[in-house]
Amino acid sequence: MLRHVVTGIDGSTESLAAAHWAAREALRRGSSLTVVHGWVWHPHAGPSVPADSLQREWAEQTLERAENSVRAAHPGLQIAAQLVGESSVAALLAATEEAELLVLGSRGLGGVMGFVMGSVSQRAIAKATCPVVLVRAGESVADEHFPAPHGISPDEIVETPYRDVVLGLDTSHPCDGLIEFAFDSARRRHAALHAIHAFGAAPDHVSDGGPVPTSGRELLTENERTVTAALRAWREKYPEVPVTETVCEGRAATALVRASATAALVVVGRQQRDTRVGMHVGPVAHAVLHHASCPVAVVPHA
Prior knowledge:
The chain is α/β, with parallel strands linked by helices. It folds into 2 domains: 1-139, 3-Layer(aba) Sandwich (Rossmann fold), CATH 3.40.50; 153-302, Rossmann fold. It has 9 helices and 12 strands. It has helices at 13-29, 55-73, 88-95, 119-127, 141-144, 176-189, 216-237, 252-260, 283-291; strands spanning 4-8, 32-38, 79-84, 99-105, 132-135, 164-168, 193-199, 205-207, 210-212, 243-249, 263-271, 296-301. The longest helix has 22 residues, at 216-237.
């Protein structure tokens, strides 16, 4: 079966921006795109549904407008549109059973330069078994690339380099799927990979004479070696991907959000858990999703 990229449409400008990002990603992957709109009848339609419009008719028109917009921009892409008679989350999760990737829109930037996630995005990220990318409103082709000379759009100069792909690396729980997703994303863009690992200060060692402070430099060197070892096999598998490693003391989310300002994509992990009692995405992924200034890919792992 042909693998595909899935994107969710709800009639908003941010979901349309996500659909166009998903289309570009599908082309990079040589995949098809599935545009999904989950719709169920409500006795009291939301404010986005015109008062004189039947709800199903409005849903059909919403999906058709998004499909036509993406087709016009990407005429060579194979696109399927699905109007699903289920809730948005259920429709998206069902569509991703055979998908490579799910792409969703953010409602825009929050008060601290971050994403504003709706309940659909939160639940889909927490429950999806494939990677989920959250795309901010207004995201465009130019945002994925370094500035072109003389202000020319990357659309006009296709060789304008992509910005880096940033990987949040937790060496205490290294995940092959997460690392490979980041390397593969960089390879498809002919971009560099920037791996970031942040560590906390180690507790003092205790000897017979009392606590002995651990040297900050020793701790940094130890973590640098661990990161290099964790990436060695992937460097060999993807020799065409330039890799930069940043190891620092502090909060991982802070370092990743800072790096997102000049990145095409930030890749973080989410440990798969039983989500019946809540939305578990992990503190680092949660913080990055709320404050990053570029698209964020959340990769589930064991």
